[in-house]
Specification:
By secondary structure, the chain is of the alpha+beta class. It has three domains: 8-269, Spore Coat Polysaccharide Biosynthesis Protein SpsA, Chain A (Alpha-Beta Complex); 277-344, no CATH class; 359-451, Sandwich (Jelly Rolls). It has eleven helices and 27 strands. It has helices at 42-50, 68-77, 94-109, 127-142, 184-193, 207-217, 219-225, 237-240, 248-253, 274-280, 339-348, and strands spanning 8-14, 59-64, 86-89, 114-119, 123-124, 146-151, 162-165, 173-179, 196-206, 259-264, 268-269, 289-291, 294-297, 303-305, 311-314, 319-324, 327-332, 359-362, 365-373, 376-383, 388-391, 398-403, 407-411, 418-421, 425-429, 434-437, 444-451. Helix 1 (42-50) links the parallel strand 1 (8-14) and strand 2 (59-64). Helix 3 packs across helix 6 and helix 6 crosses helix 7.
């Protein structure tokens, strides 16, 4: 896609945590990585509606450093190259820093670039309407405008921010103001006025124009971030943490004189709660959304999602039921936003369910916890082709490995390298730093037992 002959880039903001969709989304597995709508994760769904019209080579993603490898995995799985196209943040500093980081990096590559900026975890039901609106937004951006996509409100929503346009609100109108999430009475007035639009968090602008606006309205952020970009190696967390923690709306959009709002009707939702997911998805004859192994009897107006087990519901109405291998969430559908309070309580109690799933992604593959006791941890490992996992910690007295399929190489300090095939196993004493490599072209699965008990054997030998 070309905007007046200028190069265009799609920038995905993928730094959120999405605690309002617990237990599917977690601290280490945020909403954009969750599979909520079919087989694709939300970031994959976002990419599929952007590529095309954007070329895959023009996609850039801003995300937390600890999610880089999993984000890359999701991109590569649908044919979007990830190498060199992910900008990582060592700590989150809100959307202004993320947007400016992308602008600075892309300007070095293409000084005249036009950017479309999109949250990685929203959904759009009307793809053709989105592509038509995107073409209009990029044309306006090429002319020097800073464009915000404003969603025509379908009802008085109190969970979204609003953008007020200067009347008449036509093709693209100057922005009068941004309004934070209103109460119901104000939301009703906004819908009736016809000049207020939901703030979608999607924007378009030239990278150079945005940097000029940062210089004018957020000079402290620009002065702090610009020296950090373009340097070899990752940005230090202590340097990044000193940047102002401010949203792009507050830093630039509320102040710029170049801002316009483009009213659109896209079938859009930010999927900010289980209720909003229910509202977005098609229903069966009973008004239910059922996914997974679900048996529903005399059930009305419910959202039931199963991930690993059979769920049977009987004579219930207006509830959300979400099951994962380690947690179950049940709530009145209208009150499902309160799940964030449950997540806060889990964090206060130090529960791992707030942070991670039983299966956690690593650069080398995945680790699934099967059993955890004071004496040790039993896991299933899946090693990607050609990957190498460094296992064991100083507190581990022994590590038992059994190969379920394929072949692995095992090596480590003062250890004789060895190969293990399917059905073979080994017991390793003091295993800290042991490397397990998959030399094959297919994924390899193993069972690993990290043994911490005093009675662990001191020698090595077949398991």
């Amino acid at each position: 896609m070309i905007a007046s002959g200028l190069p265009v880039f799609a920038v995905l903001l993928a730094g959120g945590s999405g605690t309002r969709l617990w237990p599917v989304s977690r601290e280490l597995h945020p909403k954009q990585l969750a599979r909520l709508l079919g087989r694709d994760s939300l970031i994959q769904s976002t990419l599929r509606r952007l590529v095309p019209p954007f070329p895959a080579s023009a996609v850039r993603v801003v995300c937390r450093a600890d999610q880089e490898h999993e984000i890359a995995r999701h991109l590569e799985a649908i044919g979007v190259p990830a190498a060199g196209r992910i900008y990582t943040e060592p700590v989150g500093r809100n959307t202004a820093a993320a947007v400016l980081r992308a602008c600075l990096e892309i300007r070095r590559e293409a000084p005249e670039a036009v950017l479309g900026v999109f949250p990685a975890d929203h959904v759009i039901g009307r793809r053709q309407a989105f592509h038509e609106a995107l073409a209009r937004a990029l044309r306006l951006a090429a002319e020097g405008r800073v464009v915000a996509f404003g969603i025509r409100p379908r009802y008085p929503e109190t969970g979204y921010g609003y953008i007020e346009a200067e009347p008449p609100a036509g093709e693209a109108a100057p922005i009068r103001r941004f309004v934070e999430k209103p109460d119901l009475a104000a939301a009703r007035r906004f819908v009736e006025a016809g000049t207020y639009f939901w703030n979608s968090g999607m924007f378009a602008f030239r990278a150079a124009v945005a940097i000029e606006e940062f210089a004018r309205h957020a000079p402290e952020l620009l002065a702090g971030l610009e020296p950090l970009c373009g340097r070899p190696g990752p940005i230090a967390a202590e340097e990044y943490a000193r940047l102002p923690d401010v949203s792009f709306d507050v830093a630039v959009m509320e102040k710029t004189s170049r801002g316009v709002v483009l009213p659109v009707d896209l079938g859009w939702s930010d999927i900010g709660s289980w209720k909003s997911l229910y509202d977005f998805l098609p229903k069966d004859a009973g008004g239910n959304v059922l996914e997974g192994d679900v048996i529903a009897r005399e059930t009305r107006g419910c959202l039931v999602l199963g991930r690993s087990r059979l769920i049977a519901v009987n004579r219930i109405a207006d509830l959300v039921v979400v099951e994962t291998p380690d947690s179950l969430f049940i709530s009145d559908l209208e009150s499902s936003r309160d799940v964030k309070e449950i997540v806060a309580e889990l964090k206060r109690r130090g529960r791992p369910e707030a942070e991670r799933h039983l299966t956690v992604a690593h650069p080398w593959g995945t680790l699934t916890r099967l059993d955890s006791q004071a004496s040790g941890l039993t896991c299933r490992l899946s090693l990607d082709p050609g990957a190498c996992a460094r296992l064991g910690e100083p507190g581990d007295e022994a590590l038992h490995l059994v190969v379920l399929n394929g072949e692995v190489r095992i090596r480590g300090r003062r250890r004789r390298p060895r190969r293990l095939g399917a059905g073979e196993g080994v017991r390793l004493a003091a295993p800290a730093g042991v490397e397990v490599e998959n030399p094959t072209g297919s994924a390899v699965d193993l069972v690993a037992v990290f043994w911490k008990a005093e009675a662990a054997a001191a020698g090595e030998g077949p398991a």
